[in-house]
């Protein structure tokens, strides 16, 4: 396996919020262990690692394919412009790596069903 | 059925972001049609309906139980303070209604699995 999953989050001044992203990353790493070599996260603003730092690190690990998951609820400027721009920069730096930007969190098809299941089990 | 689900979102200056919340609300309404009488959303800031407006409306519809779903990625001040405060205000106005605040979106147990499934189907 020489593929990676990069979760990109906004980054928060509240360390607890950033830790929620790290915790999700850990859960995803466990869930994807059999099919994804590296699962990690990066932040657009406020905290680090930055997107470029993390992608450089993945490139140094010999990754040839990176799936990018925008950890955002809505397709605002960060999802529409900032993340594609970061990935374009990374593409030029690392022409041997294939990048694929996944749908952002808020648009995942299974989300309504997941929320509905939560409602049922906690009511 | 006299129960309701209230999705509380932050509210955005970008109408497209608010529309994503409305779209999720519509999907949830369809998913929950057989077990929840009213599914609707409200916003903490910037746009309307406000939380109190929407709860007043649900109360007028004869709802006696409201599950509140915080549409937030992290347990920041909005999830930790603002939403509980709004619900406490509503509780005092509507003593006949039982309120239950669900875990916020970013903390849903099934989220890593859902994200992992998305990765698999789009890779």
From TrEMBL, chains A, B:
<dbReference type="Pfam" id="PF01903">
    <property type="entry name" value="CbiX"/>
</dbReference>
<dbReference type="InterPro" id="IPR050963">
    <property type="entry name" value="Sirohydro_Cobaltochel/CbiX"/>
</dbReference>
<keyword id="KW-0456">Lyase</keyword>
<dbReference type="GO" id="GO:0046872">
    <property type="term" value="F:metal ion binding"/>
</dbReference>
<keyword id="KW-0479">Metal-binding</keyword>
<dbReference type="GO" id="GO:0016829">
    <property type="term" value="F:lyase activity"/>
</dbReference>
<dbReference type="InterPro" id="IPR002762">
    <property type="entry name" value="CbiX-like"/>
</dbReference>
<protein>
    <submittedName>
        <fullName>Cobalamin biosynthesis protein CbiX</fullName>
    </submittedName>
</protein>
